[in-house]
Amino acid sequence: MALEDTRRLGCGRSIDQIWAGMDQPPTSHEEDCELCQAAKARMQKIKEATVALRESDLHNPEMTLPAERTNSIMALARAEARRSKRLVLRGTEYGTVEISEQALSSLIRLAAAAIPGIHSRRCRIEVQSDAEMGSTHLTINLRVATASGIDIPATVEGLRQKINKAIPAGVGIDAGTVNITVEDLYDV
Amino acid sequence: MSEQNLQGSLINSELIASLAARTALETPGVLRLEPTIKGFLASLGPAALANFHISGSQDGSYRHDGVVARINDGTATVHLDIATDIAYTALSVAESVQERVRENICHTGLNPGPVHVHILTIEASPGSIPR
Ligand SMILES: [Zn+2]
Question: Which domain holds residue A46?
C-alpha cells in the first residue's frame, strides 16, 4: 500500500496537490467538487497562518528550521483536509468515535486498486446513525471505469465483495449499502 | 484544605492532556496523534503563539497536537485525533483508547467524562511490509 493512496480525497484528488495549488485559482474540477472545496476551506486557515509566520520570521531567528517546518506544515494541511468531512461511527456515554470520510474512501479506493480492470473514480459515503440502537449504516456510492473487454458484472461483483470484506476488517462496521456505478470504459 | 481544592490545585487540564496523549500512543494500532493549528504554533514557541494571540488555556482547556482536555467540576473530558494502523480494526482501536484513557483518568482522582476519538486516517505503519 503506497502512502500516496491514503492521501487522496473521495473524488480522487491528492491532498498534497490541492495544497500545492492553494495560491492558484480553483480548477474546473474544484469549482464543482464539494470535497475539494471543503478541504480547501480548512487548509486556507493554515495558509494564512504560514504567511503571517513568514513575515514574523524576519524578526525571529530562533524559530525551527525551514525544512523541518515544511514537513510539519504539510502534515498539518493533510490533517485539516481530513477534518473537513467526518462521520460518526459510534456514540456512547464513554464518548463518540468519528472517522474522516477521507479515511473510509481511502480504504475503498485501496480495495478497488486490488481488482484488475477497475479504476476507482468518485467515492462518496453517507452514514445513518441510530445513537440509541448504537447502530451505524453506511451507504457507499462509488463510480468506476472498467477496462474494455472485461466481464463487467463479474468484475463489479468481485469489487463489491472486496469492499464488503475491507470495511469490517479495517473499520469495524458493515459496509452497508454498496452502490457501484460503471460510468466509463478505458482502453487497455 | 478540602480534597476538592487539593485536586484542583494538582491536576490541571495540561496534565490530563499529556496523560491522554501518552495513553493513546501506547495503545496498539495507534500510529500517531494528528497535528492541529494551535499545536503547531505552540511547537514554534511562545513568540509564535503570542503573534497569533493564542494562549494555552484561554477557556480552561489545554491543547497540543491531537489532544484537547477540559476539566469541569472534577470531571475530565478529552478529545483525541488519531491515525490508526491498517493492520488493526480502527473502531476497536478507538474503543480501546477510550477505555484506557478513562482508566488512567480514574488514577488521577478525577472522574472520567467522555473521551471523543476522531480517526483521521488509516495507514500502513512505516515498519510494515506493503501489501
Ligand atoms: Zn475534488
Answer: 15-58
Cβ-nearest to A90 among B81, B86, B91: B91
Best of B27, B32, B119 to mutate (most A CBs within 10 Å, chain A): B119
**B5-34 pLDDT, tens digit each:** 444 456 888 899 999 999 999 999 999 999
pTM of the model: 0.88
Q: Are residues A43 and A94 in the same domain?
A: no
Q: Find, among A21, A5, A14, the residue nearest to A170 by Cα.
A: A5
User: Mind listing the pLDDT tens digit for each residue in A113-144?
Assistant: 999 999 999 999 999 877 666 678 999 999 99
* A36-52: burial string, b at 16+ Cβ within 10 Å, e else: bebbbebbeebeebbee
Would you say residue A64 lies in a domain? no
CATH number of the domain within which B75 lies: 3.30.70.1350
Cross-strand bridge partners of residue A184: A145
Please tell me whether residue B114 adopts helix, strand or coil conformation. strand
Does residue A123 fall inside a structural domain?
Answer: yes
Q: In chain B, what residues touch A86 (CB-CB under 8 Å)?
A: 118
Closest partner residue to B91 (CB to CB) among A2, A46, A97 is: A97
**CA separation (Å) from A42 to A23, A84, A145?**
14, 6, 30
Residues in the 5 Å CB sphere of ion ligand 1: A 11, 13, 33, 35-36
